[in-house]
Hints:
With 378 residues, the chain is of the alpha/beta class. Helices cover 30% and strands 25% of the residues. The chain contains nine helices and 19 strands. It has helices at residues 9-20, 37-40, 55-79, 97-112, 122-128, 150-163, 274-287, 332-347, 372-377, and strands at 2-5, 25-29, 44-45, 90-94, 117-121, 138-142, 146-147, 167-170, 176-179, 184-189, 192-195, 198-201, 222-232, 241-244, 247-251, 256-260, 296-306, 313-316, 322-326. The strands form four sheets. The protein has an eight-stranded mixed beta sheet with strand order 5-6-4-14-15-16-13-17, with helices on both faces. Helix 1 (9-20) runs parallel beside helix 6 (150-163), helix 1 (9-20) runs parallel beside helix 8 (332-347) and helix 3 packs across helix 6. It is globular and about 65 Å long.
Amino acid sequence: MVVVIGAGLVGLCIAYELSKRGAEVRVLEAAEPASAASWAGAGMLAPDTEEMPSAAMRALCAYGLTLYPSFVEELRAESGLDVRLRLDGILSLAFTDEEANRAAARVAALNDEGIAARWLDRTQTIALEPAVSGAVLGASFVEREGHVDNRRLGWALRAACERRGVRIESGCGASAVETDARRVRGVRTKDGFLSASTVINAAGAWAGELAGIPQSALVAVRPVKGQMLALAMPRRLVQRIVWFPGGYVVPRQDGRLLVGATVEDTGFDVRVTAHGVKWLLDGALDALPALRDLAVTETWAGLRPGSIDGLPFIGFGALAGYAVATGHYRNGILLAPATARLLADLIEERAPAVDPSAFSPLRMHSQRPGNAAAKAAT
């Protein structure tokens, strides 16, 4: 039995992948599946537009993007739901000479790596997205990136998991891992004890709060708040993701235009604030003044799971049978399928497609990564 704690997109992807490989899987969720950061995000798939903290992270994110087209088609077949994947490029605006020079240099570096990206001048930028301010100097355009509707993705994953026999228990409250001197024994919830050979902590921003984990196996994850809002957008006013200094907009097929996102270290506070909404609107209206008369239809906030070094924790640590999959920060949606593949490979002692050593939970401790914990979990 494998127990996954946390039914966000990462946890559900892990459960789905393991169930495909023949494992018996149960998922425990304190609230509702895919209702925290998985619900609050913008669904961005941007391994090259985002600035990654290391080459290892870039490689993992690039791998994650390559998985998405076949992943969503598989989910459509399993669940009957279209998660609205769009890989039509991301535009990043420059309004100052410094921003333009930095963006042009970034395009050149991506081209050197064989990645399709272009520098667009003012005329080309406005031709591509007419809602952009005439003050723009130009923009970088990364062609293979895009977004997915993360809320629909959550519904599809839940349906696919249930179809494959994964038992998802929502509203089960706080869970506590039970261990002996060397390995996990299972998980205790308000409904009793559940024995498990492997426990996977995919609790997102709450992963560092999981009860029962010994000090040697703890991972340092902190919540990073992000506020967002949605505007009611006329059809095709904005056609693709547009980044601007300090934020971005993401068009949805349902007529919403998402505007995000703040980055705030405020603990587990998920209030939407006047200052946060103003900050988002100021940035968006400066970059795209055509949005000024649109109605605000929704506001929300979520908590990203952040780590000290900006890298996720994926794999086994010091406690046999206990794995973690958290700390993805702004890239949890992009990395959900890749994380599931990597972790399933580690459980089965297969060689993963991407070297997972940089993401080992042991990197924050004195122990060096090894295979003992993974072998004990099989």
